[in-house]
Amino acid sequence: AQSVAQPEDQVNVAEGNPLTVKCTYSVSGNPYLFWYVQYPNRGLQFLLKYITGDNLVKGSYGFEAEFNKSQTSFHLKKPSALVSDSALYFCAVRDGGQAGTALIFGKGTTLSVSS
Amino acid sequence: ETGVTQSPTHLIKTRGQQVTLRCSSQSGHNTVSWYQQALGQGPQFIFQYYREEENGRGNFPPRFSGLQFPNYSSELNVNALELDDSALYLCASSLGVGGYEQYFGPGTRLTVT
Question: Which residues of B touch A104 (CB under 8 A)?
């Protein structure tokens, strides 16, 4: 069965500092991995994805994520946080080897960036 | 390019009633997925439609049903509403069923009283 774990309910960083939001996954086949951000009372916005290729993936708004197969992790990173990055972040995975499988989301991590 | 739209924005229903939620997919997208997001939780997959056929279903009872139309818009129908059905219902469209990212609409907030 597929699963995603986001071990931190909340991450607090100061503006200008680097940020990391953690995600680990479990799938039986090759993972397709995604990060989404959700602002209050809004739908989810796509940030980036890993399907294959380079382990470091760059996405929207200066975010990047590193795929680590041995640690089954896909942590979201940004070199310098902005107050406007404060939001709810979701990691998601699906099994690339199984057609019709669902996108499975973690429970989310709230990022709070202080000025 | 028009994004994913959903209607209505908010809805209040009584337990036992039926509800239909609607979604227009992004231009060029042939795949629509529906999710239920309870308060404080991540989205839970309900089902997916690809070219008008159901292409996968999550752990939801049969009273959750759907349709996809030739223009790739979609409906989610829920019969015999229960209090626990209160949630944000999200629709997402994508270019296909492979590794394509899904683009989400703003959601429909359903409250069952």
Answer: 45
pLDDT at B99: 76
Chain B interface, mutation test: which of A4, A21, A34, A44, most B Cβ atoms within 10 Å? Answer: A44
Task: Report the alpha-carbon distance of residue B29 to residue B105 in Å, rounded.
Answer: 13
What mean pLDDT value characterizes chain B? 94
Q: Which of B58, B90, B106 sits opposite A102 (nearest CB)?
A: B58
Confidence (pLDDT) at A98 = 66
Distance CA(A83)–CA(A90), nearest Å, equals 18
Please give the single-letter amino acid code of residue B77: N
CA dihedral sign of residues B42, B38, B23, A85:
negative
Residue B59, C-beta contacts closer than 8 angstroms, at least 6 positions apart: B44
Task: Indicate whether B63 pLDDT > 80.
Answer: yes
Q: For A13-27, what is the mean pLDDT?
A: 97
Chain B CB contacts of A105 under 8 Å are 35, 42-44
- Please tell me which residue of chain A has the smallest CA distance to B54: A100
Picking from B42, B97, B99, the nearest residue to A107 by CB comes out as: B42
| Probe site for chain B from A4, A52, A103 (most B CB atoms < 10 A) | A103
Backbone angles phi, psi at B6, to 5 degrees: -135, 145
pLDDT band at residue A97 using 50, 70 and 90 as cut-offs: low
Beta bridge partners of A96: none
% of chain A residues with pLDDT over 90: 78
